[in-house]
Amino acid sequence: MILAVADAGPIIHLDEIDSLALLSVVDELLIPQTVYQELEAGTVPPGLETIEYELVESDATDLGVELDPGETAALAVASERAAVLLIDDLAARDAANDRDVEVHGSIGVLVLAFTRGELDKSAAAELMGALQTETSLFITDAVVEHGISLLDES
Amino acid sequence: MATDLTERVQEIAEARGIPESEILEQALERGVEDLWVDLVLSRYIDDEIDRETAINLIGRDRVKRADQEVQAIEDDVRWGLNA
User: Fold this and answer.
1) Residue A101 is part of which domain span?
2) Which of A104, A143, A144 sits opposite B75 (nearest CB)?
3) Tell me: the pLDDT tens digits for B22-64?
4) Shared-domain flag, residues A57 and A126
């Protein structure tokens, strides 16, 4: 049973490779109101309406982190509910690790989708590459290749 | 794509007040630098060169960032395979 809280990053990045539906591979998905408002400030990906999620409030007053409001809200919800935090920003991942919150990103969602039978291995590898070449996610080319190698070896 | 590049080169040249040929020269230098960084990081991640060598070639910040990204992607792949 995977309860996960999504920050805007994975929602945007997965949408950019037409794979937003893969977020439904987690068993229960929470999206903080603050994150949703950040999406609304741009464009809420239409695909978000095709997956099940719960909009939740957050109380981030005591966190004391220097992250953006959406990241802070997502971290607060994950901490309160012992949920997996889905976030791509490295600083936010560090903040989560510092607070013993389990944290993963868009790459993790793609690999989980493979494990749960939503993607075959080659499609998962292809989408990992696309995250680097076709989205606003900043990740080093050689690091993505390393991730694809780890997936291939599994 | 080619049209985009041509238009961008023209716009940059006009904005900077320098010839398009100079813009293309700068673009080539930056492109080769990026490809060089990618190559060094690839060799570092594949254990073909050690950390100090990578730092000497492309700088500590880039290597440190790559270390963080590798940690994150390894965590993600492990989780995705075992969750």
Assistant:
1) 3-105
2) A104
3) 999 999 999 999 999 999 999 999 999 999 999 999 999 999 9
4) no
Residue A66: what pLDDT?
85
* Cβ-Cβ contacts under 8 Å, A109 against chain B: 80
- Are A74 and A16 part of one and the same domain? yes
Asked if B41 reaches chain A (Cβ–Cβ under 8 Å), the answer is yes
Nearest CA in chain A to B75: A104
The total domain count for chain A is: 2
Cα–Cα distance for residue pair A1/A7, rounded to 1 Å = 19
Of A90, A68, A84, A65, give the one whose Cα is nearest residue A3: A84
- Find the mean pLDDT for residues A128-154: 91
* pLDDT, average across residues A117-138: 93
Inform me whether the C-beta atom of residue B54 falls under 8 Å from chain A C-beta atoms: no
Residues in contact with A51: Cβ distance below 8 Å, sequence separation at least 6, in sequence order? A20, A21, A23, A24, A29
A90 to B77: CB separation less than 8 angstroms, yes or no: no
Same domain? For A7 and A40 the reply is yes
Q: What is the ipTM of this complex?
A: 0.91
Are A138 and A75 within one domain?
no
**Inter-chain CB proximity A142 and B41 less than 8 Å:** yes
Nearest to A111 among B42, B68, B77 (CB): B77
Residues of A with CB under 8 A from a CB of B: 2, 90, 93-94, 102-105, 107-115, 139-147, 150-151, 154
**CA proximity to A15, closest of A146, A137, A102, A147:** A137
As beta bridge partners, residue A54 has A30
Percent of chain A with pLDDT over 70: 99
